Amino acid sequence: MLEVKQVSKLYENQRGVQSVDFSMSRGEIVGFLGPNGAGKTTTMRMITGYLNPTHGSILIDGLSMAEHPKKARQKIGYLPETPPLYPEMSVIAYLRFIADLRGIPAKEQKNRIDEVIERLGLEGRERQVIRSLSKGYKQRIGLAQAILHNPDLLILDEPTSGLDPKQIIEIRQLIRELGENHTVLLSTHILPEINALCNRVLIINQGKIVLDGQPDQLANSMGDTFEVSLEVKGPRERILAELRSMPEVSGVRELAAEAAGAEGLTDAEATTADADNANEADRVPAAAAETQGAVKVLVTAADRTDIREALFYRMAEKRYPILGMKKESLSLEDIFLKLTTNESLEGSSDGGAGNASASGAKDKEVTPDA
């Protein structure tokens, strides 16, 4: 449905976007992430035809934006971050105006306008002047103009900005429904929204795509360790000693609040603390060592292999019941920070992301006034 082929936008003495290359199929909802100034807005404006790329090509359903701009734009619905509204017009007058601009036949306009009004919860507001509406309702009207002509491709820039929680849920459900028959490119700063809506995510940083993948697979591709949070019932020191003695395990860190000094330590300090705790059994009374409480730990594999089965059998062999076991993975927030800043995440490296850039610079994006 959408093909962006080696697209660059260059400005004199300023960076725009460089060799952006990706495609989207019909029915995909793709999240588009990046820090301020990374090139999101520039890329979206080029896709919609508001800007011409310096290099590369953009195809909308096989139509070149450069060669057939009018036909290509007819297949696109665009909601910019600031909705393109005329505040002195009423809601119904504005939607009729947009219907005329979009070339919707007069005999179809009423049904189409009624449909989007109902779909976006604008009933009872048709005669109201737009300037008198709340920001949430203005956002709904902006989305209404984007879908009024039933486009194949929707470009949505911060579509839930300014909405209350109930409205956010409704708009997200609408986007899911639209994604069943349309292609949706969704820019947002609300990272949980990506997990809630998108089946794919693109991250752009300093004008380049640094990640392209499915949200549920990103953690595995980005992580350089395999970690398991484990809760085991039994004597603390003995459990810790057993875990540390396993050849499959490279590190054990207590997660319980009572773990002495464990909270807030750096990796180096935690490693030292682990070494101290490993000898603690020699210093505590035998009665205390036999306390049958629950021990919560974070276990790191010696390599990236799954160690859950080995942990299960070792604890079962020693007759220490496992009360909980969960594979830990990077959150989308962690991945975003890892790719767009210089700060290394705890327990992670900057590798594993292919062409990932880890620069923290946030260059100012220079685009013409829209």
Describe this structure in words.
With 370 residues, the chain is α/β, with parallel strands linked by helices. Among the domains are: 2-75 and 151-221, 3-Layer(aba) Sandwich (Rossmann fold); 224-328, Alpha-Beta Plaits (2-Layer Sandwich). Helix content is 35%, strand content 24%. The protein has helices at residues 40-48, 69-73, 91-101, 106-119, 135-147, 165-181, 191-197, 215-222, 236-245, 267-278, 286-289, 308-317, 332-340, and strands spanning 2-11, 14-24, 29-33, 55-60, 63-64, 76-79, 153-157, 183-187, 200-205, 208-213, 227-234, 249-254, 293-301, 322-328. The strands form three sheets. It has a six-stranded mixed sheet, sandwiched between helices. Strand 1 (2-11) and strand 2 form a beta hairpin. Helix 3 (91-101) crosses helix 4 (106-119). The longest helix is centred in the middle third of the chain and has 17 residues, at 165-181. The model is unreliable at 257-291 and 343-370 (pLDDT under 50).
**So what's the CATH class of the domain at 2-75 and 151-221?**
Alpha Beta
| CATH fold descriptor of the domain at 2-75 and 151-221 | Rossmann fold
- CATH architecture group name of the domain at 2-75 and 151-221: 3-Layer(aba) Sandwich
Q: What is the molecular shape?
A: elongated
Average pLDDT rating: 79
Termini gap: 25 Å
Low-confidence parts, pLDDT < 50 over ≥5 residues? 257-291, 343-370
Structural class: alpha/beta
Strand segment tally: 14
**How many distinct helices?**
13
Instruction: Output the helix-strand order.
Output: EEEHEEHEHHHEHEHEEHEHEHHEHEH
Major beta sheet summary: 6 strands, mixed
Determine Rg (CA atoms, Å): 27 Å
What's the CATH superfamily of the domain at 2-75 and 151-221, by name?
A: P-loop containing nucleotide triphosphate hydrolases
Helical fraction equals 25-40%
InterPro entries: AAA+_ATPase, ABC_transporter-like_ATP-bd, P-loop_NTPase
Keywords: ATP-binding, Nucleotide-binding, Transport
Pfam families: ABC_tran
Family: Belongs to the ABC transporter superfamily.
